[in-house]
Amino acid sequence: MENSESIVGGGVPLSVETAADPSRVRMGPPPTSAGRRLAVHPAPAARLLPVARLLLVARLLPVARLLPVARRALVVRPAPVVRPALVARPALVARLPPVARPGLQAPPGRATLRCGVGPGSSAAPQPPHAASASNGRASSSTGPPTGSANFRFGSEQHGGDGVPRPVNDEFILPPDDVAQHPSLGPMSSDPFHFRPTIHAVPATEALLNSTGLTFGAVLSPFAEKPDEEVPTVQQTRAGIVRCRRCRSYVHPFVQWLDHGRKWRCSVCHLVNDCPEAFRGRVDERGRRVDAAERTELSCGSVEYVAPKEYMMRAPQPPTYVFVIDVSATSAASSIPEVVASTLSNSLEDIYEDERALVAFITYDSKLHFYGLDSAFMQPRMMVVSEFADGVELPAPTPRMLVRASEARENIEHLLEGFPTMFEDNQDSGAALGPALQAAFSMVGHVGGKVLVVAAGRPSVGAGAVKARDERKAIGTAKESALLTPADNFYKLLAVDAAPLHVSFDLFMLAQRPSELSTVSSLSRHTGGKVFFYPNFSLSKDGQRVSADLSAMITRPTGWEAVMRIRCSRGLKITGFHGHYFARSSDLLALPNVDAASTFGVTIAIEDSALEGARSKFSYATMQAALLYTASNGERRIRVHTLALPIVAELPAVYQAADAPCMAALLLKMATLKAESSTIEDARSAMLNKMDDIVKSFKSLSKSAGGSGQLVLPASLRLLPYYTLAGLKNRALRVEGAGSVDGRSFALTRARTLPVHYLLHTIAPRLFRVQPGPVNPQLSKLPLTLSLTAASLGSDHVMLLDTMSALWLWVGRDTPGPVIRAVFGMDSLASVESTQLRLQPLDNDLSAHVFAMISLIRSQRDEYMPVYIVKQDGRYHASFCSFLVEDRSSSVMAYPEYLQALAKKK
Ligand SMILES: [Zn+2]
C-alpha cells in the first residue's frame, strides 16, 4: 500500500485504484525503499571537532510573536432573509452596468446566517428532508443563533460606478445568495473547513455543464475557526460508529431505519446495524430524538480520540530537524544569526515536551552534524566532506537526534555559538541535496518535520543544479519549462519521505536566482510549506523570516496524518491541488498538517449513480476524515461532513454557486496548467471559463439577453472581479512577472492558500488613512476602496493589505502636518522610501495608523511587514501592480472587462 504505483502529488490528476482505509494505514517502521535510504554506520571521512568558539552573543533580533489567528468581534444581524428561486425572481439576477453610471444601484442588503456548531447549541438539528431539496430553497426553520459564532456573509459593495466589488470581508464567506442554503447549517461542515464551489449537487452532469460552472471544493481540514473549536465526540461503549462497507463515519445525514436499530450510510447506501450502546429513539420524521445530545449526530465537524486499533505503532513524537545553510553567502547575509536567534526564542515549548526530538545539520560544501547528547558537556561538531557516493552519517555517538528536554543545555550552547562559528566562512558551496538526504536518513524511522533554511541554489553533490538562463524566457511560452524542476532529485526524495511521515518546509532566503521551482518539489510532495524572500536582506526580511520560522515550530501541528475523502455515489474526485502525497484516488498522505494546509478538489458527477442516490437521499455527502497524531501524542480523527442537496433545476444550481470559492479553485487549477502547458494557456483557461459561464447563463435566461448589460446570477456577481484579479496576479500575469523564482512562488501560494487568503492576495484591501476621521482607539477597519489609481489622491495616505505585507502609500502633496504626525519629520522629499521607518509617535494620527495596522495584523497568522511607498518613489510601480481594476498592457480594466463579457454570445 505504501509503495503504491499511483504515487503522484501536487495537483496531478489521479488514477483510480482501490483505496485502503486511513485508519488502517500502516505506520510501522519504514520499508526499505529502492536503495534511497541511507546506511547509518561510522564514517571514515567524519572527524570529530569540538565546537569552535561557542561564545555567548547578544540576540540579534527579537522574535516577532506569532500572531494569533483572527479573533474578530462577532457581527450579529437581524433575522435572515430567505431568498426566492432564481430567474423567476429578478432580485437574484445581477445586472452589471457596462458603463460607469454613478449612483445607479444602491448597495444590496445583507443577509446573515448562523454558521456555528458547538456544544452550546440548543436548537434541534433539522433532518435532511426538512429542507426542500428539489428547488434548492433554504429551510426557513433556521431558528435562533446557536454556537458561539455568527458571521456576516459576503456580498459586494459598489463604487460610484455601480460596479460590484467585494466588501471589507475578512473571511470572504459565501455570497448572501448562498448564505441561507441548507448546506450551511450547523449539521454540515462549515466553509472554514470544507467549502464547495456550489452548495448543491446538480442532479446530472448535463445540468452542471449547461451552466459552465466548475464543481469542486476547497478543504482546510485543520483550520482554526475563530472563537470555536471542533467538538470532541464523547466516547461510548459503542466505540466509533462507522459504515461496515465504506467505513464512513456516522453523521447527521444518515437515515435511521427500523426504529433506530439500523442506519443507512449516505455514501455507499449500506444498511448498517446500529450498535446497541448507540441506539436512540427515532421520531415520526425519522430523526434521532437525542441528536442534539450526540455531537456526531448534530455537528458537521467533529473530532474523535482514536482508540488503540487506529494505531499500528506508538504515536510519533514531535520531531524537528533543522537544516541550515551556513555557506559564505549565507553568513554574509547574517542568516545563521537570524535562525539561531529565532530558534533560541521559539524552542521553549519543545523543551517542555518530553517526547520532542530535535537535530541540527548545517552545510556549505560540507555537511556539519552536531552531537547533542546530554552525556557530553558540550555539543560536538562532526564534519563530512566526502559524499560523492552518497552520504554516510557519522557514528551516532554522541547522538544527533536527541530529546530536546534532555539536551537543552547543549542545544542552547550550540545556538549561542552559531553566529560566530560561521561569520568568517569562505566556503560558498551549497551541498543542500546531501544535507537533505542526511536529514531524511536521520528521521526516516520516526517521521517528522525537516525545516530547511537555504541561502540559494544547491551547487554541490546530489541535487546540485546549474542556474538556468531565464532572461529571455520570462513572460514567454518558454517560461513554463523553467517552472518545472530542472532535476528530479527533490521530487524523488519527497516521494521516499512522505510515506514515512517526513515533510520538508523550505525557507529560501535568496539574493540570486535559486531554482525555487526545483527545490520546492520537496515541500510540494510532502505536504510542506514554502517561504521565499527574494533579494534577502537582514533589515528588510529579518523579522519576517524570524516570525515565519517561529510559526512553523510553535503552531499546532498534526503529525503523521492521512486524509481520506469519501463521496456519495454519483460523485467522483478527479483531482487534487495543493501540497500532499497521493496514495490513491481519495487518500492523501500529509506528513504534517496545520491550520493553513489547504487542498483544492475537483469533482465529477456520474449520472446513473447519482440518480440511484437520489432515490434514497435528497442530500449527497462528502466526508473528509483526517487521522493524525496531536503533539501531545494523542491519535485523533477529525471528520468533516459536507451535505449538499441534490438539485434538478437550473435556478437552484445558480442560487447555490459560491463565486469566491469557485474563483479560488479555478486559480488552483490554473497553476497546474501554467506548469504543464504555458502561462498563456492558464490565462486562457481562466478567461474561457468566465466566457462559458456568461454565455451559458445568457442562453438559459430570458432576462439575460438584449439589454447590453452583463447579467449574471446574483451569486456569481463577483466572479469576473476575481477572474480579472487572478490574471493580474504575479502567478499569471505577463507584464512585470519578475523572476522565475517569483513566479514559482506566486504559483505555490495560489496552489496552497485557503480561499480568503488567496482572494485577498490577488485582490488586496485598500484603505484610506488620510484625509479622513482620526480615531486613536479605532476598533473597526474602514470600508475598502476600489483597487484603482482613481482611489489615490496626491494628498492622500493609503494603506494596502496584500495579506503578506502592508504598504503605506504617501501622496506627493500630503500636507506637512500629516507627514510630521506620521513620520516625525517635516518632509519626505530627500528620504528614500527604503530608509523610512514607521515609529509610534505621541499624537492621535500616529495612534490611528498603528491601530489600523494592528487590526489588520490581528486578522493574520503571518507576520506582515510595513513597506512605505512614496508616490514618486521607486516602489510606486510595484504598488500600482496591486491596483487590479486598472488596465494593464495585457488585461483590460475591470469595467471594460464587464463590457466585453456583456457582448459575449
Ligand atoms: Zn457506507
Would you mind describing this structure in some detail?
Helix content is 25%, strand content 19%. α16 runs parallel beside α18. Mean pLDDT is 82; it is low at 1-91 and 97-155. The strands form eight sheets. Strands 1, 14, 15, 16, 17, 18, 19, 20 and 21 form a nine-stranded mixed beta sheet that branches. Strands 8, 13, 22, 24, 25, 27 and 28 form a seven-stranded mixed beta sheet that branches. It has a four-stranded antiparallel beta sheet with strand order 7-9-26-23. A hairpin with a 3-residue loop joins β15 and β16. The longest helix has 22 residues, at 679-700. The chain is globular and about 80 Å long. The chain has 24 helices and 33 strands. The structure holds zinc ion. Zinc ion binds next to loops. The site of zinc ion has 8 residues, from loops. InterPro entries: ADF-H/Gelsolin-like_dom_sf, Beta-sandwich_Sec23_24, Gelsolin-like_dom, Gelsolin-like_dom_sf, Sec23/24_helical_dom, Sec23/24_helical_dom_sf, Sec23/24_trunk_dom, SEC23_SEC24_subfamily. It comes from Thecamonas trahens ATCC 50062.
Write the layout of secondary structure elements.
Blueprint: E1 47-50, E2 93-96, E3 112-114, E4 150-152, E5 156-158, E6 164-166, H1 176-179, E7 194-196, E8 201-202, H2 205-211, E9 216-219, E10 255-257, E11 262-264, E12 271-273, H3 295-298, E13 301-305, E14 319-325, H4 328-332, H5 335-346, H6 348-352, E15 357-363, E16 367-371, E17 380-384, E18 402-403, H7 408-421, H8 432-443, E19 448-454, H9 479-483, H10 489-497, E20 502-510, H11 516-519, H12 521-524, E21 530-534, H13 538-554, E22 558-567, E23 571-577, E24 581-582, E25 587-593, E26 599-605, H14 607-614, E27 619-629, E28 635-647, H15 650-655, H16 659-676, H17 679-700, E29 710-713, H18 719-727, H19 740-752, H20 755-762, E30 765-770, E31 797-801, E32 806-810, H21 816-823, H22 844-858, E33 866-870, H23 876-880, H24 894-902
Parallel strand pairs: 8-28, 14-15, 14-19, 19-20, 20-21, 32-33
Antiparallel strand pairs: 1-17, 2-29, 3-4, 5-6, 7-9, 9-26, 10-11, 11-12, 13-28, 15-16, 15-18, 16-17, 22-25, 22-27, 23-26, 24-25, 27-28, 30-31, 31-32
Helix pairs in contact: 5-7, 5-13, 8-10, 16-17, 16-18, 16-19, 16-20, 17-18, 21-22
The structure holds zinc ion.
Residues 243, 245-246, 248, 265, 267-268, 270 line the site of zinc ion.
